[in-house]
């Protein structure tokens, strides 16, 4: 029997789509250059806040959002690849998708971290918030790494989108719909999932955003 099952909570879905929007905005601002770099920095700090929030939510949030629920070992991955893993054991991210999430988050964290120390090598008007704490030569080197990492991120994004398309075409699984609505069509026994209260998500977001604002922008 197929049934609609709530898989993703609102905070996780809002994080995902906010991340997509901020990534696009940062890309656009960086391409424009000049005064747009100031907005690139603002978006970068906002993105850093989201990443800290996701780290917190991955430890105390809803069951499917917790890293412990989707970061699996080799045996579980092999079971999934062989088609031996019941859907109820991995209602959220599948074992491969879970590791993709980890890689994406680490890559984004590296991108944001290098951006905080990067220098505006053209006008030196829009350096990263922490660039003043390191030598100018090192800041320029970090800027090069920042640009190089972005190309790697684009590759990961392309891989992510390709996987979504393949799951839709080959496995007939819609991965985008559940991340929009929170609900997924599943067969078999309905899994019992724990969902954290929204107030906890708000507290985590305020903690991450407030902490980074006072650390980087004041």
From TrEMBL:
Keywords: Cell membrane, Membrane, Transmembrane, Transmembrane helix. Signal peptide: none annotated. It is a multi-pass membrane protein. GO terms for molecular function: electron transfer activity; heme binding. It is found in: Cell membrane. Residues 8-182 form the Cytochrome b561 bacterial/Ni-hydrogenase domain. Its main location: membrane. PANTHER family: BLL0597 PROTEIN (PTHR30485:SF2), NI/FE-HYDROGENASE 1 B-TYPE CYTOCHROME SUBUNIT (PTHR30485). This is Hydrogenase.
